Amino acid sequence: MNISAEEKIMYKVMKALNDSGIPISFKGSMVLKACLLEAGFLDDTRHTVDIDGNWNSDTSPSGEQLVESIQEALNKYNIEIDVSIYRMYGEGRSAGFDFTDRESGEILFTMDIDVNRPVVPTRIYEIEDIKFRGVAPKQMIADKLSVISSDKVFRRIKDFVDMYYISHVFELDVNEVLKILEDSNRILGNFEGFINRTDELKHSYEKFRFSGGVNKPSFEDVYDSVKLFIKEILPNKA
């Protein structure tokens, strides 16, 4: 599996934040990539230019406190990157941060952090001697299944693609997924879009770009693999 130059920098940042002791864990594509590698999936996967995280603390930090904590961690590990906040968190909204190269002034990547959302299962991942805490595979599967079951799938094709990767190395435990969703007060949709609006889904998929020369599998291959993977939870075994 190819790790882009930007992703290597992001992993170093994730390690620094993890090792600093601030109350953060990670989720999203960077965690999925590490998870797939550990599970033996070696094919190239879609690249990303952002980090996603969860911040859980007893108090609600200010934007200034978040920036200060992150910047201190980077400085401690001699990472020449400056952090700034461009979006404050709120109800249903994550905090957004720019990570800028100190020398060139170029924005290298962004980071979204959800603050004090319900705690989810996590575990330690390791990729190229870099360790960090990220959401557990079962949580990733539940999150992506929730998207695929609703009309969000048309605007979050990345979750559809990620489930295709996941289907190669994991099995779906229906009871486990339903328990995770219940614990977070979520319910599955009816999969109407996924099952009955495949033309629209294909159109959304075709518009989705795979950067960095990563192979883009055919829609039919992705759809069939995902459908087979989630068949036990589809209504009437559609």
Query: Which percent range describes the beta-strand content?
Result: 15-25%
Residue windows where pLDDT falls under 50 for at least 5 positions: none
Could you spell the SSE succession in H and E letters?
A: HEHEHEEEEEHHHHHH
Distance between the termini: 33 Å
User: How many individual β-strands?
Assistant: 7
Structural class: alpha+beta
Number of helical stretches of at least 4 residues: 9
Task: Please state the oligomeric state of the protein chains shown.
Answer: single chain
Task: Summarize the structure in short.
The protein is of the alpha+beta class and 238 residues long. It contains nine helices and seven strands, in the order H-E-H-E-H-E-E-E-E-E-H-H-H-H-H-H.
Structure, described:
This protein is α+β, with helices and mostly antiparallel strands. The chain is built from 9 helices and 7 strands, in the order αβαβαβββββαααααα. The chain has helices spanning 5-20, 29-38, 63-76, 137-148, 157-166, 174-183, 192-196, 198-207, 219-229, and strands spanning 24-27, 50-55, 81-87, 95-101, 107-115, 122-127, 130-135. The protein has a 5-stranded mixed β-sheet with strand order 1-2-5-4-3. Strands 6-7 form a two-stranded antiparallel ribbon. The longest helix is centred in the first third of the chain and has 16 residues, at 5-20. It is globular.
